[in-house]
Amino acid sequence: DTEVTQTPKHLVMGMTNKKSLKCEQHMGHRAMYWYKQKAKKPPELMFVYSYEKLSINESVPSRFSPECPNSSLLNLHLHALQPEDSALYLCASSQVPTANYEQYFGPGTRLTVT
Amino acid sequence: SQQGEEDPQALSIQEGENATMNCSYKTSINNLQWYRQNSGRGLVHLILIRSNEREKHSGRLRVTLDTSKKSSSLLITASRAADTASYFCATDRGRGGADGLTFGKGTHLIIQP
User: Fold this and answer.
1) Which of residues 40-69 of B touch A (CB under 8 A)?
2) Residue A56 phi/psi, 5° resolution?
């Protein structure tokens, strides 16, 4: 199974809502990532989890809170978002937590903040 | 800031023709990867070339890397309509340990039937 799954596919939330994005992989990968992609732009790295511990936070606002409950699961908790946070949120995983291995991406969650 | 810059930003060719996309980057890297993205969905890994490699092939794909010029090219031969997608180069940031990818701006490729 070489698939990374993400739920939900689409999410519309108000600025006062709390919601969570979920990502799952069963490839035994020890690194998981969150990327944000605005329309017609490249993905931008948000967080890197290495062996279930947060290794890199690319100065992401605290209204985005990542969580890695186990080696297969990655969550992104959202709270008090702004309309400019509307984007495609991509989860990825790789065998080991370096940039020297290919990353497997999920289909993304398209988030709209109203 | 973006590490990679793709050229051209958009490319439209006829089916069966070859498509060439270029990528430039700014800092030292350990490897460079190319990814494809269809219609704003997930990215698919195409090929990884390490800094000590100059050329790599995978099916109809040919990637070159010139570390002296900090540039790479992706050639897709005998293009098909299904190759219509956005193509991104991605690099590490040349540091060890846990790290993510830095993507270039991408080339949007359209294959005309």
Assistant:
1) 40-45, 48, 50
2) -135, 130
